[in-house]
């Protein structure tokens, strides 16, 4: 039954399954970053450095708000994966329905709240006056698309929970092409400025979400719900909140450190803002494999915990880590030898000062990608095991590290410490997550053994 209506990750070679599942997810994450990267390229080339800085200054707050949405949806998908692993399809459907109900409520509340507070947040962050209006024009449109963010991430998360990591990628490929066309159309034809690429991103992601919904209805009989299964269930809502909210807060708490760091970078002027924001965009593109490994391990751990196969969870962590370490060294070499050429996609060759700073930022991050591998693999595994609270604590570690750099080091030493804020955050998170994983594994063994 599982093999006919989803992919079973509870049997077979762990490394092969993880790699095969992660590759399509990687393509999906690359296309998602492609949205943001195309926005940045078009803005930098068509509207100039000031507009580039305006869009870039919103990166931290964008991650804090939309990261919460993505984290919540990832958490909502975990009980679905566990029920699939256990073969409980009725429970799977009920969890999916209740996840949809909660997502609608969360999306409505968040859209209204951040819409009203958007300009105030930019002021609190100390966004330079010469770019604050452009920053608002961009991020307000993005925030109005929060319901679309919820819809796409929830649906794609449920599809992945059933073992299908490929289908969401196909839809993202189509919408990525649409995003490119809309970027140029909104700027060059409609003259919308920085608001144009934001609108293009929202519309394109909406198309992906709609395609995911149509596919789910037609492809998965096990998701066809009865009227009774669609009703809100208090116990399931509680379980979903216990999974989703901690994962969402983990993203947001981590992003608070980024907001503090961004505030410090804002004080260095528009050039520094452009350097950090552009460097972050490029670095996030290179970090997509780590995101894919993390998302894979959440599903892998969820299905195997549901099936009671804890030893496979340990094997999966080891296999995913080796894959991540290998990629880390390859990525460092690419950025070391080709980093400046990559930066020229965003800026003209005459912007030598900014180009040098971006290259410095890229290398500072790439040197510590092995630490980032463990952050994603171990944290998402713990979440897939059902211990969402540890995600918050790991996020606190990352927040504290970035806050220290932003509050104490950037004001005193300038741009250089900003290049190592994320690496320090990853190392601090690892120091917490590694012992936490073995603690969770031991606790689950006791629980399953006593059952």
Task: Describe what you observe in this structure.
This protein has 451 residues and is mainly α. The chain is built from 17 helices and no strands. Helices cover 83% and strands 0% of the residues. The protein has one domain.
Mean pLDDT: 87
- Count of strand segments: 0
The end-to-end span amounts to: 26 Å
Helix content: over 70%
Rg from alpha-carbon coordinates: 21 Å
Number of domains: 1
What string, H for helix and E for strand, traces the elements in order? HHHHHHHHHHHHHHHHH
The main β sheet shows up as: none
Structural class: mainly alpha
Q: Which residue ranges are poorly predicted, with pLDDT under 50 across at least 5 consecutive positions?
A: none
Write a short abstract of this structure.
The protein has helices at residues 2-5, 14-47, 49-56, 59-86, 89-124, 132-144, 146-161, 167-189, 195-219, 234-266, 270-286, 288-306, 310-343, 352-366, 369-384, 389-413, 421-450. The chain is mainly alpha-helical.
